Amino acid sequence: MELLEMEMVAGYAQRLGDRPDIAGRRIEAIGFQVGQQLAERYTKDRNRFTDLIEIIKFVCKDFWAQVFRKQVDNLRTNHRGVFVLQDNKFRWFTRLSADPASLPTATAGMLPGPSSSSSGASPPRPPGADLSITTPHDYNKVTAASLAQFLYFPCGIIRGALTSLGVPCTVSGEIVSLPTCSFTVCIKA
């Protein structure tokens, strides 16, 4: 699946190189559809969920294990509808690394990162929802700006799954250091 994502991002970047915002929206929309379909498939033989915590636990354990081949490493919440899912070794990012030349800019200033929303309009981004790269690795020479494109698809998958389970939300992603990333889920009231 990670190779599919890499090709999808490369294809949209090539076709819409001057419009990364449109490329990001399209990638996120594909992820949303995939997330909806996967959630339906993985829950067809289960009892209906009774509360929000049960749904979030399902996404962090069962759904995450099916899609990303491991469970979420850390789940935090503020008990007001915001959940942070952290994966310390996000499988899809193990083949990526940031170009060190792009890192001083990325760590000094924040780059726009993906934020997927259940509505068509772009919601205001919560603090800390932007992409910041802080890793010195240098394998594939991926620039910090292009790393943001790789977050749209998993953000869409998470939002699609939660929406399919009856939880309207926004999802944003942040790469802490490759391959560690976190996804912030803001539940809509």
TrEMBL record:
Quick one: a GO biological-process term for this protein?
A: endoplasmic reticulum to Golgi vesicle-mediated transport
Gene3D superfamilies found in the cross-reference section: Trafficking protein particle complex subunit 3
Stored CDD domains:
TRAPPC6A_Trs33
- Annotated Pfam families: TRAPP (PF04051)
- To which species is this protein native? Chara braunii
Gene Ontology cellular-component terms for this entry are:
cis-Golgi network; trans-Golgi network; TRAPP complex
Stretches the record annotates as Disordered: 107-133
Name of this protein: Trafficking protein particle complex subunit 6B
Biased composition regions of type Low complexity, renumbered to the chain: 112-122
User: Which family does the similarity line name?
Assistant: Belongs to the TRAPP small subunits family. BET3 subfamily.
